[in-house]
Write a structure and sequence with these properties.
Length: 242
């Protein structure tokens, strides 16, 4: 059941809206909705505007938060997050360290799978935004630290970095990992990727691999179907095992 303060998505025939149930009202060309009327509803229920236009209520999942949540920059794409999860075998028993939180997109995906996620963001304004997005995702196992990841302590099954990575970050990640644990980085450029690979080869005996995931969406029109012309490259994933 939807409670006051919960995020919801209202799905119409052509558009959808990311809203918060509670005080106030929302208006569009389809009419107005009192946001308090969303409280007590269930996912899949329908609500009508004052003009009689109907919307279906949806509770956001991580892909919805990726699309609609407020961002502080360019987050990792779901395809790259999925590869990080798959190649590390992330599961409900894992303690995960994430750094370069940004708006919290990767941390939200990880939090739905892992036992606990500690995510580090050195920029306080980004950390505050991530906390809000994580709260909207109703995750109580994801903890935001507005600190440099080099200050992190403890033992982790997986360390994930999406940031400007220096050699000391790789060494610190190695020191935090349990034996058999995985280190995974997301880097957008060849130069930084090569630096990460070289640093990993000096420390990780369990193997170092680098991947690029190319994604092509199909576009279908009356004229025919073909791959989208969007740019397919986003970044490189380097995965090393201790």
């Amino acid at each position: 059941m939807i409670e006051e303060g919960d995020r919801v998505i209202l799905v119409g025939q052509k558009r959808e809206y990311y809203l918060r149930a509670g005080p106030g009202k929302f208006g569009s060309d389809a009419g107005e909705i009192q946001l308090a009327d969303l409280v007590g509803k269930m996912p899949g229920d329908r609500i009508e505007t004052h003009l009689g236009k109907a919307f279906t209520i949806r509770v956001p999942r991580p892909p919805d938060l990726f699309c609609h949540g407020k961002r502080s920059g360019a987050p990792m794409l779901p395809k790259d997050i999925g590869m990080a999860i798959a190649y590390t075998g992330m599961n409900r028993n894992d303690l995960v360290l994430d750094a370069g939180t940004g708006s919290g997109v990767a941390a939200i995906y990880f939090g739905g799978i892992a036992k606990q996620v500690d995510t580090y963001e050195i920029r306080p304004e980004f950390a505050r935004l991530a906390e809000k997005n994580i709260a909207d995702a109703h995750l109580d196992n994801v903890f935001v630290h507005a600190e440099d990841v080099l200050s992190a302590e403890g033992s982790y099954d997986i360390v994930h970095l999406d940031m400007m990575i220096q050699k000391e970050h790789v060494a610190h990640a190695h020191s935090l990992l349990v034996p058999g644990g995985f280190f995974v980085t997301y880097t957008p450029f060849f130069e930084q990727t090569f630096a990460v690979i070289d640093a990993c080869n000096e420390l990780f005996s369990g193997g170092v691999n680098c991947f690029e995931c190319m994604e092509r969406e199909l576009t279908r029109t009356a004229r025919g179907t073909r791959p989208s012309t969007r740019v397919a490259h986003s970044g490189f994933l380097t995965i090393a095992r201790k």
